[in-house]
Design goal:
Rossmann fold; five-stranded parallel sheet; 8 helices
Length: about 230
């Protein structure tokens, strides 16, 4: 059975296109993000990919270019299926690596024949005299997109560094605040352990007192170890 992967983040479009294609006997795979589309395409190796250009994470141009870099996917039909209708949208999709372009909303009656034609090898092209201009524009967009990603990564890294400093400062402060009373309690317990009152107490429960002192000493020692390990 012919497999068609549809990369689309709109549930309504997913439902409509899936129903039309399944009625024609195709197996439909769905991806609601560009990254998911790349993963599914790499694993399932579909016979065709329908690509929404305006998906949320990576745009359809970028996803198409990435898919074309995978040897096993280099020659399969990738058809832009999108509501983009601005001048040059179709040409940009073709320059990015799409085989063809179908506008949304789809024509339910004509859609099956359009899919069949692309599966049989139909391919749209940009006129040779326009290719250089569109390719230059596409490369510029890719560079701008990369620069934007680098900027966002730098900003995220700065936030992480601030959070790491806050964490470090908190640990230092917490350790200090905990260690001060522990040190005092440790000292008091040490005095209790060594005082003559404990060693030779006039009380009948002297062993109980010493036992409690030993427990205090051991517990505080353990707390000190925990604080030092923070």
């Amino acid at each position: 059975m012919t497999k068609i992967l549809y990369v689309e983040d709109d549930p309504g479009s997913q439902t409509l296109v899936s129903r039309v294609l399944m009625a024609e006997g195709y197996q439909v795979l769905l991806a609601d993000s560009g990254l998911e589309g790349i993963r599914i395409a790499d694993v399932e190796r579909p016979d065709m990919i329908l690509m929404d250009i305006n998906i949320s994470d990576l745009d359809g141009y970028e996803v198409t270019t990435k898919l074309r870099s995978v040897k096993a996917l280099k020659n399969i039909p990738i058809v832009a299926l999108t509501a983009n209708v601005l001048k040059g949208d179709k040409e940009r999709a073709l320059i990015a690596g799409c085989t063809g372009y179908i506008s949304k909303p789809i024509d339910v009656d004509a859609f099956p024949e359009q899919i069949k034609n692309f599966l049989q090898g139909h391919q749209e092209t940009v006129p040779s005299e326009e290719q250089v201009n569109y390719l230059t524009e596409y490369n510029r967009q890719v560079v701008e997109h990369l620069e934007d990603k680098v900027r966002k990564l730098k900003e995220a890294n700065q936030v992480l560094q601030k959070l790491e400093k806050m964490k470090s400062d908190f640990i230092i402060l917490s350790a200090h605040e905990l260690r001060t009373p522990l040190t005092m309690a440790y000292g008091y317990a040490r005095i209790l352990m060594t005082t003559e009152i404990v060693k030779n107490p006039p009380l009948s429960d002297d062993e109980m007192v010493k036992h409690l002192a030993e427990k205090i000493f051991s517990s505080i020692n353990r707390l000190n170890e925990v604080v030092n390990d923070i």
